[in-house]
Specification:
alpha+beta, 7-stranded mixed β-sheet, 4-stranded antiparallel β-sheet, 31% helix, globular
């Protein structure tokens, strides 16, 4: 198999990269280890899209932070009934969406895009002159001129020998375990009810009837009647390692155990949950942070807070710095100006690998900046930028940010 662009990882960033590259005429291969496209949405049941909208000032209406693919995806998801909103939650606007609808729209985009080949249930296992792909013991080989790492863990970058970095265990963002409940009574998770539920959970943790990791449990209703999503931040242990297979295995099983106890508590102790049941477990725990690629520029936390601008900007990060270094909830840091931070093309280029671009949560950034750029809305934007850059470079050689922006505007038109 011979391609212009190979995209590893079929989450929101990988989908945006692959579709955008193919729309520019590049023969594109998208490789995804799960059976559906959507990444943290379809596999981990993330049910809101953060980072789509600029931080609101006063009572102003929601305004998109990025145009192009991110805006198109939101518009189409709303049009087919797969999302509702945007909804203002405190100082941010988010788009509430159903994971099944997200995955369905991803399938539609893939099918309607000529020149895009998809390999599900497949992982890149080696890259030399040829790329080796593995699916249940069957090995395929492929060639590509340029690459986009949208794996979230910089897995492709590591295989290609590109330098990466990772925070010490104690500073890493804690993982999330999200599951769906069905059979919940109407109004059971309205704002005042959620506050009462949080107080009851905190009391149960103090009394020892719920484990400590249940303390930060958050509930959010769905557009589907009777459906509620429950998010639990897991501690992960003192030696939490999002890349360790033994640790990940323990995280999955312990996450389900904590979630089951929370579900039983809600069913037995909270009004409106008497008939509730676990409607869906995630396919995998939601990892928020692991390896990050070392790029030509490292986006810093100060860049986000100062709403930095760059001459080679290709995307914007509009979400606050959302630190989740413990299992007790987020610490938010907002840019004083409320303006988005620009993301330069240099942060999407691997420093020592001319053919490798990066998108999503593993772009070149610090731990603090990653706490802003890792959200889905920003991942859609960096994915589009990296996909366009990879397609143009495969065709014409090293690409500039101005060429990426011009191509994105042409695609949008």
């Amino acid at each position: 198999m011979d391609f212009d662009v190979l995209v590893a990882g079929g989450g929101s960033a990988g989908l945006a990269a692959a579709v955008s590259a193919a729309r520019l005429g590049a023969r594109t291969l998208l490789v995804e280890r799960h059976g559906s496209i959507g990444g943290m949405v379809s596999a981990a049941l993330v049910h809101s899209i953060c980072g789509l909208y600029r931080l609101p000032v006063g009572d102003e209406s929601p305004a998109l932070a990025n145009g192009g693919f991110a805006a198109e995806f939101a518009r189409r998801l709303l049009a087919n009934g797969g999302a509702s909103g945007p909804v203002r939650l405190g100082r941010v606007d988010v788009l509430l969406q159903r994971p099944t609808a997200f995955a369905q729209l991803a399938d539609v985009l893939v099918r309607e895009t000529p020149g895009l080949t998809v390999r599900l249930h497949t992982e890149v296992i080696a890259t030399r002159e040829e790329v080796s792909l593995s699916c249940r013991g069957k090995i395929e080989t492929a060639r590509a001129r340029t690459f986009v790492d949208a794996t979230g863990d910089a897995a492709l970058a590591v295989l290609r020998g590109a330098p990466c970095e990772i925070e010490p265990s104690a500073q890493l963002q804690r993982p999330a375990f999200i599951f769906a409940l069905g059979g919940v009574a109407c109004g059971a998770v309205e704002e005042t009810a959620r506050l009462r539920i949080a107080q009851r959970i905190a009391r149960a943790v103090k009394e020892g009837s719920l484990p400590l990791e249940a303390l930060g449990t958050h509930l959010r209703g769905s557009s589907q009647a009777g459906e509620v999503f429950v998010t639990i931040d897991l501690h992960g242990g003192a030696t939490f390692d999002p890349l360790d297979p033994a640790g990940l295995s323990e995280l999955e099983t312990s996450g389900r155990q904590v979630a089951q106890r929370v579900a039983e508590f809600l069913r037995g102790e909270v009004e409106g949950f008497a008939l509730s049941y676990v409607a869906a477990w995630p396919a995998r725990v939601g990892i928020r942070e692991s390896r990050r690629v070392v790029g030509e520029y490292r986006l810093e936390g100060d860049d986000v807070l100062k709403a930095a601008r760059f001459p080679d900007a290709v995307a914007a990060a509009a979400w606050p710095i959302e630190l989740r270094e413990t299992a007790s909830g987020p610490r938010l840091r907002f840019p004083p100006s409320g303006n988005p931070c620009e993301i330069p093309l240099r942060a999407l280029r691997a420093r020592d690998d001319e053919a490798l671009f990066v998108a999503g949560r593993c772009i070149s950034c610090s731990h603090e900046a990653q706490a802003s750029v890792r959200v889905i809305g920003t991942c859609l934007a960096t994915g589009e930028a990296s996909g366009i850059a990879a397609a143009l470079q495969a065709r014409n050689g090293r690409v500039t940010a101005a060429e990426v922006v011009a191509a994105r505007e042409e695609l949008a038109r």
